Predict the structure.
Amino acid sequence: MPSSHLLIIGDRAALSWVVTEQRMAFPAGRSKAARALEEGDEIFLYTTRGCFRNPTRDLGRVVGRASVAGPVRVLEEPMVFGERSFTESCRLEVSGLARFREGLVLRDLVPRLSVFPDPATWSVRMRRASLPLPPGDAELLRTELESLLSPYEEAVESYRWEPVTG
């Protein structure tokens, strides 16, 4: 039976790559978490408060839904975002995206999510590449997120991040 996971993305360039390439990459040392994903698993894409480099303005949001479309594999060449190197990857099939920099504010749902047994310290559990979700939590996220999603083809271009050069 497929499981559900929250994939945690903390960098805007990484978010652009994940969404436009429909892939997820995992940092070195996170093989166990990466290998917990199996083809067909449900994925919720989550952007951290710091993803857009303005944590005082931005909120952590669930911004999309996807499914794992292939096995996790070691990359021949690691992906590098900022100062972090990502050594493993899997294909995703993104089914829906919220409008860019919008989505479901996770903080508002924390008291209703069993994956966070202590709402006061919930953010500590977010310091990882992915977080497995109990079925009831996945259902709550699915229900709350549904009205915020547009089809992938309609929303993907707004997630293309072109870094400023010069």
